[in-house]
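Sample entry (160 residues):
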Amino acid sequence: PKGFKFKNAKYLKPMYGNKLGKELSKHHLYISASINEPAGMHHIEGILCGLPIIYRNSGALPEYCKDFGIIFEDQKFIPALRRMLKEYPKYKNKIAQYPHNSERMNNEYLNLFSKLFDNRHQIIKKRNLFKSPNFLVLNFVFFILEVRNRLKLINILNKN
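Predicted structure, serialized as tokens:
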């Protein structure tokens, strides 16, 4: 709301890219209390900026944060924070081993696309539309909808 100010927190305007990375690396810890996070990037970015993490046991956070910070359940954040204060050097030193970085992600995507390309003929053979008439009908419906959308787009472009 207009005129509102935090008493014990510093508000920063949204950032991205190098500016965000530099700002994050000025701090000591990343905290995520996100509920049902489906493998977002914020916690990964925090860890890759050198910050141990305290994270909620929810969604994909445990998968990406395990061993690089401390997990907490429900409203039990304060005990996790106290534990982090005691064990901070252990987690700070381990950050350099964090495996979820852009190089790994790019390699995994490249491997996936290469595998799909190499196996494209086998994949196409397995796509037998006549195994199920429902799929044939659905594909036809999607084809008709796609043609309709493209015709609408052509009409809009011709009017301009």
